[in-house]
Amino acid sequence: MLVLIDEVEKHLGSRVRDPYGRTLGILSSIYSDIDGSVSSIEILREDGILLNIPSERISITPDGIIVIPEWKIEAIRVEQHLDRARKRSRALEDLFSSKEIGSQAYEEIKKGLDATLTRLRERSKQVKGLLRKRLGEIEDELLHLDKAINHLKLSYTSGEIGEQRFKASIENLRAARNRYIDEKKDVEKHIEALEKLETDAVIQPKIPTEIQVAQPKIEMPQQNQQKPIEVRIVSS
Question: For the CA atoms of the chain, what is the radius of gyration?
């Protein structure tokens, strides 16, 4: 999606967030081309480090600029490609089974689609590895936050921290925890979507309707019929 400088310029000096509500920093600079399209932006973090974000990760919303995580961009891209390849494979099988295309054209197109699907499934596995890595990082952050929350509760209960400061701190920690929970659910959702698309992308070839497979006729073996035994009664 094309992002124009006119859309971004009005947010200069404003806070930039991720989809889960975390503040990344302040929008400090914009890189644009001669046609006015934005190639990337610079975000100044609180520690003074500049982050360069490509335009494909930028989403303009009524609440400001949202920066989409890199792992999500990769997941969405592969999901879209897998879905498109799956639809093309199914369309090819439908055309072949309804005799809309011949076997030679079918084999040629199918060969290319199969090669594409193989590459996409391999890329999907790599992206799932990236997602699982992020999942592990989120789990670590959640453990860290839980530890901080528990120690804060202990200090408050023991009277070492006043109620006002405790409430402010615990709200911030819980808000941060909820944001990580939201991201965790999002990561898990994309892992599930990729696994489903990988499975759905495997299309079983269809047999054209004009091909009738003859069923072998099975004859039951005839049983030997035995003649009745003649019994004679002899009087003594």
Answer: 33
Q: DSSP of 179-221, one letter per residue?
A: HHHHHHHHHHHHHHHHHHHHHHT-PPPPPPTT--PPPPPPPPP
| Whole-structure pTM value | 0.81
Q: pLDDT digit string (tens) for 109-138?
A: 999 999 999 999 999 999 999 999 999 999
- Provide the edge-to-edge strand list for the sheet that holds 64-67: 50-54, 38-44, 23-32, 15-17, 64-67, 58-61
Residue 26 domain boundaries? 5-68
Token pair in block for residue 111: 């060969």
For residues 182 and 137, state if they share a domain: yes
Same-domain check for residues 52 and 161: no
What total number of domains does the chain contain?
2
Q: Which residues contact 236 (CB under 8 A, 6 or more apart)?
A: none
